[in-house]
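To assess whether ligand presence alters the predicted conformation, the chain was also submitted together with zinc ion. Input:
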Amino acid sequence: MRVASLQDHPQHPVQMPGASGARMRMLVGPADGATVFHMRHFEVAPGGFTPHHQHDYEHEILILRGSGTARSEAGDRPCRAGDVIWVPPNEMHQFMNTGPEPLEFICLIPAPRDCSTPATAPGCAGGG
Ligand SMILES: [Zn+2]
């Protein structure tokens, strides 16, 4: 077992094209030898957004702080701290911070992904 603060995990800018003001922390991932899930933390600055993208795996998201817009193929919906979001595989999605404070959320993805490069794993590298 490993116990560590959120803040102890390094935060990196999301460099995937189409992202703005978004940063990611890998909370549980390849470095831990996690074999089933990877847990990531995203922080999107006011006015920022994650890329509008899709992939063949799902996202399981819990919003921790702030408020914004969750864009999907079903349209735009408001979201805020406490909301739970499931993004099915292959559905286009994007998260935008429309509020005055940082938008923070946890995003789970399946582990067997190559997280080494954005080209091989766009969602892993910072899709959100
Ligand atoms: Zn994604």
